[in-house]
């Protein structure tokens, strides 16, 4: 049972990616109902609260934080195995507030996404630093847009060249896990735009096996953590 | 507060253009920048999207921000628009195609042009080098020149 919470308040992309554009949130006695993709995948996003795709959420930090608090307090997720929170890039209001509000819930950890480029890694190093400062465990880093294989001639191109060694080198230097690398595949973008599962659209893609390996490593990490917690209790 | 300081306290000297690079979104940075620049009558905003619907979806909201804050929209750029394989010249639309142009049409704002994915552009950015000097023959070069020209043409006209 998985819950997906989109806290990119200004650019909520999750509804479209999940094929839920245009859905609305229903309120009941037990709180706000998530919008379900499948029985075992519920989603919440500010996108469901906006009536038009042109509506802008022009809010400063404190108002964004207020909505994030409501999402955590008022959404009736039911009994879940995983709560996944999608944040915008950065180390600002959304990140600080989610860490603060979930303090007592013991966040299992963070997955940080980067491209191979140094300009991206520079941002990610700050994000890793943020995690250390707020004592947030890091599950690992994923290198996205990692190489492109031409569908015609099958040659590989590094569209985003890892000029400083990519995520691999950074992870070695900072002693965090590299969970995996996801190659560029036009089908990924298409699936997101159509709101379809990439796994069902392109099961044979090298990106699919990359994703599956990354997911497995995250699950193993979480299972390990729970075992350790049980031992302590 | 930092943004206000950057605008008011930095000794820029005499300028022809001040370009402000913001993160994506419609939040503090954007509100503060518009407020800080208002006394200087900003020429307008350039919005950059990829061709994909998820990106266009965010930029639609950013267009509304511009409307609501009275910021003129100089135009939309469609970035990461196609990749030409250096080995066989096949063009692949890794992030789809046309979304930026459609959005500009739908919103009634100028479409400034498409920038293709170009490893030489990425390389220059990584090394902090002048792309225009280093790679004038690459695929992104004519695209960027055309966009720059559009912007210059657009800003030399009086705004409404």
From TrEMBL, chain A:
Any single biological process term in GO: iron-sulfur cluster assembly
GO cellular component: cytosol; nucleus
GO molecular function, one term: metal ion binding
Keywords of this entry: 4Fe-4S, ATP-binding, Cytoplasm, Iron, Iron-sulfur, Metal-binding, Nucleotide-binding
Superkingdom, taxonomy of origin: Eukaryota
Compartments where found: Cytoplasm; Nucleus
Cross-referenced Pfam families: ParA (PF10609)
Free-text function comment from the UniProt entry: Component of the cytosolic iron-sulfur (Fe/S) protein assembly (CIA) machinery. Required for maturation of extramitochondrial Fe-S proteins. The NUBP1-NUBP2 heterotetramer forms a Fe-S scaffold complex, mediating the de novo assembly of an Fe-S cluster and its transfer to target apoproteins. Implicated in the regulation of centrosome duplication. Negatively regulates cilium formation and structure.
Protein name: Cytosolic Fe-S cluster assembly factor NUBP1
Organism: Pterocles gutturalis (yellow-throated sandgrouse)
Lineage of producing organism: Eukaryota, Metazoa, Chordata, Craniata, Vertebrata
UniProtKB/TrEMBL annotation, chain B:
Entry GO MF terms: 4 iron, 4 sulfur cluster binding; ATP binding; ATP-dependent FeS chaperone activity; metal ion binding
Record keyword Nucleotide-binding present: yes
UniProt-listed SUPFAM superfamilies: P-loop containing nucleoside triphosphate hydrolases
CC annotations in GO: cytosol
Pfam families, alphabetized: ParA
Record has Protein transport as a keyword: no
GO biological process: one example: iron-sulfur cluster assembly
Alphabetized Gene3D superfamilies for the sequence: P-loop containing nucleotide triphosphate hydrolases (3.40.50.300)
Record keywords: 4Fe-4S, ATP-binding, Iron, Iron-sulfur, Metal-binding, Nucleotide-binding
UniProt name for this protein: Cytosolic Fe-S cluster assembly factor NUBP2
Lineage: Eukaryota, Metazoa, Chordata, Craniata, Vertebrata
């Amino acid at each position: 049972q998985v819950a997906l919470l989109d806290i990119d308040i200004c650019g909520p992309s999750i509804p479209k990616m999940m094929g839920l554009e245009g859905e609305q949130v229903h309120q009941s006695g037990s709180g706000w109902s998530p919008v379900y993709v499948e029985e075992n995948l519920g989603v919440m996003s500010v996108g469901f609260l906006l009536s038009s795709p042109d509506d802008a959420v022009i809010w400063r930090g404190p108002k964004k934080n207020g909505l994030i608090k409501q999402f955590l307090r008022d959404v009736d997720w039911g009994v879940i195995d995983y709560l996944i929170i999608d944040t915008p890039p950065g180390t600002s209001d959304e990140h600080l507030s989610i860490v603060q509000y979930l303090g007592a819930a013991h966040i299992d950890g963070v997955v940080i996404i980067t491209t191979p480029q140094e300009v991206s890694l520079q941002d990610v190093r700050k994000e890793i630093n943020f995690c250390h400062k707020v004592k947030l465990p890091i599950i690992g880093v994923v290198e996205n847009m990692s190489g492109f294989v031409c569908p015609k001639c099958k040659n590989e191109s590094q569209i985003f060249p890892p000029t400083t060694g990519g995520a691999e080198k950074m992870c070695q230097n900072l002693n965090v896990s590299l969970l995996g690398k996801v190659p560029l595949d036009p089908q990924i973008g298409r699936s997101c735009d159509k709101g379809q599962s990439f796994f069902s659209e392109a099961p044979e893609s090298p990106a699919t096996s990359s994703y599956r390996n990354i997911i497995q490593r995250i699950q193993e990490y979480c299972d390990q953590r729970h075992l350790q917690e049980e031992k302590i209790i | 507060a930092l943004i206000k300081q950057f605008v008011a306290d930095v000794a820029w000297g005499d300028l022809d253009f001040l370009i402000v690079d913001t993160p994506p979104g419609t939040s503090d940075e954007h509100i503060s920048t518009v407020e800080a620049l208002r006394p200087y009558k900003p020429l307008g905003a350039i919005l950059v999207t990829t061709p994909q619907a998820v990106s266009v979806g965010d930029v639609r909201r950013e267009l509304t921000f511009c409307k609501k804050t009275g910021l003129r929209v100089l135009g939309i750029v469609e970035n990461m628009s196609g990749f030409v394989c250096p080995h066989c010249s096949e063009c692949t639309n890794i992030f789809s195609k046309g979304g930026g142009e459609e959005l500009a049409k739908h919103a009634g704002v100028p479409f400034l042009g498409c920038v293709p994915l170009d490893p030489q552009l990425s390389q220059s950015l990584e090394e902090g080098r002048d792309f225009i000097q280093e790679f004038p023959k690459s695929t992104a070069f004519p695209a960027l020149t055309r966009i720059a020209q559009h912007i210059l043409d657009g800003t030399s006209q009086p705004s409404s």
